[in-house]
């Protein structure tokens, strides 16, 4: 993929599961939501796997171990081994191991996923700032993480101990709604100390490096539902991406995406892995996809025609991103999107 500014989603004459050797799949909002498999996910992934595509599951959540994630996916009907799961805990543990002596102590503010990842890299998890840690690592520890853990981190960081974070996602989805994520917890220590952590998770390069090292992917496709983690992570790794509309991103956010948040492909759900992608063709002053024609007017995006709603959205992306160039499209899009039902 070129790092030139993307002005439209790409087409593909091949099914994406044939064009790419490995799918790097986000979990929440892509494969499952609220603990339950998203519609079409189980059968789509089974078909892609049967056709020879390697499936890897990439998550910023550092709480659960790869074994736990794999067991959950297997229970949902998606046979998975721990080796198919890559977490931000693993990425940050590697980052720490490259900067501290072998066997060093690391103060852990988080859950079991961090402890397992640190031990995998030969590091010793400890619980107190008084344990002479060589580093502090912070990852999502679940809703029951005691407030005093942030104090332990702050004591060590204020003394100059290097500080690392698995990720800085401010929120995390739960069965009851949106909850504070690890980024919110990182802000607590940042406020107390004025320090800045080294961060490993999506969309930053250490996470992409971890996925490539663990999967050996040669033609990876990032599959996600979030523009600011999954799609930006693919952009930073200079690989292609598929945005699925089963999670947090809606049509208006997609049309307003800056260059680093523009996916290579857009589809409704994971069935998009099993098909080609339609071409978006420049036509006069607009863009045509399927039965739709999208143009950028002086104040709003215009859409004419009919057909598959996703084709209309793809055409609108081309009109919006071309008009925006390296910026953000601010043209009104509500009327055009209302016609599509996506």
Concise description?
The protein has helices spanning 16-19, 41-50, 66-75, 88-97, 112-120, 148-158, 182-193, 205-215, 227-237, 251-255, 309-324, 334-338, and strands at residues 22-25, 32-33, 36-37, 54-59, 85-87, 105-109, 124-126, 135-138, 163-165, 171-174, 177-180, 198-199, 220-224, 240-244, 265-267, 281-283, 286-289, 292-296, 301-305. It is α/β, with parallel strands linked by helices and 342 residues long.
Indicate the percent of residues in helices.
Answer: 25-40%
Major sheet characteristics: 6 strands, parallel
User: What is the alpha-carbon Rg in Å?
Assistant: 21 Å
The main sheet orders its strands as 5-4-1-13-14-15
| End-to-end Cα distance | 27 Å
Mean pLDDT: 96
Helix and strand composition category: alpha/beta
Dominant shape? globular
Q: Approximately what portion of the residues adopt beta-strand conformation?
A: 15-25%
Low-confidence stretches: none
* Total beta strands: 19
Number of helices: 12
């Amino acid at each position: 993929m070129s790092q030139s500014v993307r002005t439209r989603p790409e087409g593909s004459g091949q099914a994406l599961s044939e064009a790419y050797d490995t799918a790097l799949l986000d979990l929440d909002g892509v494969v499952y939501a609220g603990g339950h498999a998203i519609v079409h996910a189980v059968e789509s992934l089974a078909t892609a796997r049967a056709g020879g595509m390697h499936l890897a599951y990439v998550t910023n959540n550092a709480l659960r171990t790869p074994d736990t994630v794999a067991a959950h996916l297997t229970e949902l009907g998606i046979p998975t081994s721990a080796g198919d799961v890559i977490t931000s805990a693993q990425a940050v543990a590697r980052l720490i191991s490259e900067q501290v002596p072998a066997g060093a102590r690391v103060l852990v503010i988080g859950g079991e996923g961090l402890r397992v990842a640190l031990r995998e890299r030969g590091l010793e998890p400890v619980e107190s700032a008084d344990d002479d840690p060589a580093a502090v690592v912070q990852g999502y520890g679940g809703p029951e993480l005691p407030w005093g853990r942030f104090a332990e981190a702050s004591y060590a960081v204020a003394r100059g101990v290097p500080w690392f974070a698995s990720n800085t996602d401010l929120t995390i989805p739960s069965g009851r709604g949106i909850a504070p994520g690890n980024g919110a917890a990182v802000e607590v220590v940042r406020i107390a100390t004025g320090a800045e952590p080294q961060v490993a998770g999506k969309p930053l390069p250490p996470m992409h490096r971890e996925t490539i090292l663990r999967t050996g992917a040669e033609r990876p496709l990032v599959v996600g539902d979030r523009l600011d983690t999954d799609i930006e992570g693919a952009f930073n790794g200079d690989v292609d991406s598929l945005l699925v509309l089963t999670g947090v991103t809606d049509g208006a956010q997609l049309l307003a995406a800056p260059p680093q948040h523009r996916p290579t492909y857009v589809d409704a759900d994971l069935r998009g892995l099993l098909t080609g992608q339609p071409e978006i063709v420049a036509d006069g002053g607009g863009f045509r996809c399927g039965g739709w024609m999208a143009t950028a007017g002086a104040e709003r995006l215009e859409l004419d025609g009919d057909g598959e709603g996703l084709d209309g959205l793809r055409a609108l992306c081309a009109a919006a991103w071309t008009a925006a160039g390296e910026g953000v499209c601010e043209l009104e899009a509500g009327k055009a999107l209302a016609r599509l039902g996506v």
